[in-house]
Amino acid sequence: MGYSDGDEEEAADKGKSAGQMLADKLFSSRKNGWENAGAEAEEKIDAFAEEYKQFLDRGKTERECIAAGRELLDRAGFRGAGSPSAAMGGDGRRLAAGDKLYFINREKSLIAVIIGKTPPVAGLNLVGAHVDSPRIDLKAAPLYEDAGFALLDTQYYGGIKNYQWTAIPLALHGVIIRADGARVEVRVGEDTGDPVFTITDLLPHLAREQMQKKANELVPGEDLNILAGSKPYRDGKAKDRVKLNLLSILNEKYGMVEDDFYGAELELVPAFRARDLGFDRSMIGGYGHDDRSCAFAALSALLEIAAGETPEKTAVCIFTDKEEIGSAGNTGAQSRFFENCAAHLIALSEKNYSDLLLRAALEKSSMLSCDVNGALDPTWESVQDRKNTAWLGRGIALSKFTGGNGKSGGSDANAEFCGRVQRILTARNIPWQYGDLGKVDKGGGGTIAKYVANLGVEVLDCGIPVLSMHSPFEVLSKIDLYATREAYAAFLRDA
Ligand code: MN
Ligand code: MN
Q1: Number of domains observed in the structure of the chain
Q2: Is residue 291 part of a domain?
Q3: Which letter does DSSP use for residue 274 in this model?
Q4: Is pLDDT of 305 > 90?
Q5: Is there a single domain that holds both residue 243 and residue 382?
Q6: What is the pLDDT of residues 57-96, one digit of tens each?
Q7: Are residues 368 and 476 in the same domain?
Q8: How far is the CA of 209 from the centre of ligand 1 (A)?
Q9: Do residues 41 and 176 share a domain?
Q10: Among residues 104, 136, 345, 412, which one has the fewest Cβ atoms lying within 10 Å of its Cβ?
Q11: 149 CA to centre of ligand 1 in angstroms
Q12: Which pLDDT belongs to residue 275?
């Protein structure tokens, strides 16, 4: 990153007492990364932040992030192997060192691979992040008319504070599979000139009762109703004419009828773009830092390696789905997708595939579980622990354990693996820090780490500290974003 060398520090040591020198040697000292970043480093940090903002605006749903990732991989010369099973039916080619390929699972998860100098059976170096983010999904039968409005019923996705999602502009993204089988993509509210949507809130003048409620009852989930229209269809005899008018517009635009809502995946996300934050532009505010910031850092790290070298071990980047609702389903980290891809890598690189070879490869593999972490917030510090919570600007945050109520429900990395990762980062002068979520028994959270650890893989959680996590407008530091990409790249290069 171009940090300053030790000369200045040596000069500063002159005149220090023996006690001060000993303290310097023994005490942990985590510095603000900007202190040591020279002008050259700042240029790289800013350039990477610009790339990231574009990625964030391009991918506001898991499907869009996978599509964005695929574009970058295609441009970098990765071979799209389709699904893992399609890879087997390919041209019969065997995998060799330096080969670059990717697998995509139902447009919602992705695994990109550079075959290392040692074959996959010798173990993989993995960086894995999730590309789903908290949002508001439409119900199966969402559209109704009430008091002259067309409204859409919703079910929220992931852990949100409902009240944060009212009175802001929302965009509608997703796919509809019509009765004739046609697949229609929806993306409304992103382009200048597009209409947007919103969830209304009560005016303060009449909110005396509402304001007495507990925050989780302020806006009940059932009341997260999307305002979608107010103009009646011009035919005095028809009923529900505002709803009819809206369906008529949707029919014209997408060829859909009301029944097509049922299986559709329509998601409401904040309509605003990622922006530089603060007079000094040191931060980025935007929707979906959790976990697209780590996802982009992980993919960029893999692409950086792909551009100029063959890593010692096979390097793998995973984008997974459904983390925010427990990594469930056939596109989440609990699915067999990763295992299936690993099996195919072995089948395509060894003479004879056997299940034992796969198990051996998994046991020799290690992964950075790339996920954001709650950053220290002076306004909300009462539930955080200054010594153990990640600070914005101090680099990638390493979380040995996650979970809550006595580490339950999370993952706890092995000391040996933590040591290995710390050595990799320290050797390259990459700023890193510890990052536990908060004070004991104040809450907790999990990541994809435990599901991959179940396969025998060594796993450590580490990622970017974020403020206002799970809100429509999360905040991160540009230097942490950059340091995290460097950390992932260093790990993927490790032998
Ligand atoms: Mn996350
Ligand atoms: Mn999350």
Answers
A1: 2
A2: yes
A3: P
A4: yes
A5: no
A6: 999 999 999 999 999 999 999 998 776 666 655 556 689 9
A7: yes
A8: 35
A9: no
A10: 412
A11: 36
A12: 98
Cβ within 8 Å of residue 214, ≥6 positions away? none
The two tokens of residue 319 are 């984008």
Q: How far is the CA of 1 from the centre of ligand 2 (A)?
A: 28
| Residues 160-214 pLDDT 10s | 999 999 999 999 999 999 999 999 999 999 999 999 999 999 999 999 999 999 9
With beta carbons less than 8 A apart as the criterion, state whether 69 and 300 touch: no
* Same domain, residue pair 301 and 421: yes
Q: CA 374: distance to chain centroid?
A: 14
Pair 343, 453 in one domain: yes
Q: Quick one: how far is CA 385 from the chain centroid?
A: 24
| Residue 117 structural domain | 33-133+287-493
Tens-digit pLDDT profile for residues 99-114 = 999 999 999 999 999 9
What pLDDT was estimated at residue 5?
A: 47
The verdict on whether omega for the bond into residue 291 sits within 30 degrees of 0, i.e. cis, is: yes
Q: Which ligand is nearest to the CA of 463?
A: 1
What pTM value is reported for the model?
Answer: 0.95
Give the whole-angstrom CA distance, residue 382 versus residue 423: 32
Provide Rg for the chain, Cα atoms.
Answer: 24
Q: Which residues surround ligand 2, an ion (CB under 5 A)?
A: 290
Q: Ligand 1 center to residue 130 CA distance, Å?
A: 7
- Final residue belonging to a domain, choices 205, 238, 270: 270
Which CATH number fits the domain that encloses residue 225?
2.30.250.10
